[in-house]
Amino acid sequence: MNTPTLIGSLVFAFVLVVLIGVVIRLMMRGWRRRGQLQDALIGTLPTVPDTVGAPTVAATRGQYLGCTLAPKWNDRVVVGDLGYRTKAVLTRYPEGIMVQRSGARPIWIPADAVIAVRAERGIAGRTIPTRNHDGVLAIRWRLPSGTEIDTGFRADDRTEHGRWLEEEEQQG
Question: N or C, which terminus of the chain has less Cβ within 10 Å?
């Protein structure tokens, strides 16, 4: 390889690295700005109660897919740790629904805040191809700030979604 070609290659590589760095920085700035704008909408989450009754729907293992601003299934909430996917356990009690997330704070959804529990095809940029559109369990609920959000959960065994939908029919 001759010297001009080597220098040209190095300059090109340097420009490419700088360009990738700028793009990553802009993406991070956008994520933070979006979080600041949503902070007022979300406010503080309900606190987990000290005691709860016996579960009405047993613990369901799966993946927490994130929260979105209702009714926009693709408008991910990025405040705090609500926007990160993680393994989780979902349990329903008479007082509400507990989402225990791995590596993140638990989410408590009070029973009077639950608007609907339904099966969806996707949430928060995550679409699960299924025949009957039951790939994601979406829980729509109202925050203390008055904002409605959808919390997405995908059970490891999707047949367990049926237990949640049956319980919602009985509650509603």
Answer: N
Could you tell me if 65 and 124 are in contact, meaning their C-beta atoms sit under 8 angstroms apart?
yes
Rounded to whole angstroms, the Cα distance separating 17 from 30 reads 20
Tokens representing 82 are 């609500």
- pLDDT score recorded for residue 130: 58
**pLDDT the model gives residue 109:** 92
Burial zone of 69 (CB within 10 Å; 0-12 exposed, 13-18 middle, 19+ buried): middle
Q: Which tens digit of pLDDT belongs to each residue from 120-146?
A: 876 765 566 555 556 788 889 999 888
| Eight-state DSSP code of residue 76 | B
CB-neighbour burial class of residue 124 (10 A; exposed 0-12, middle 13-18, buried 19+): buried
CATH class of the structural domain 57-170: mainly beta
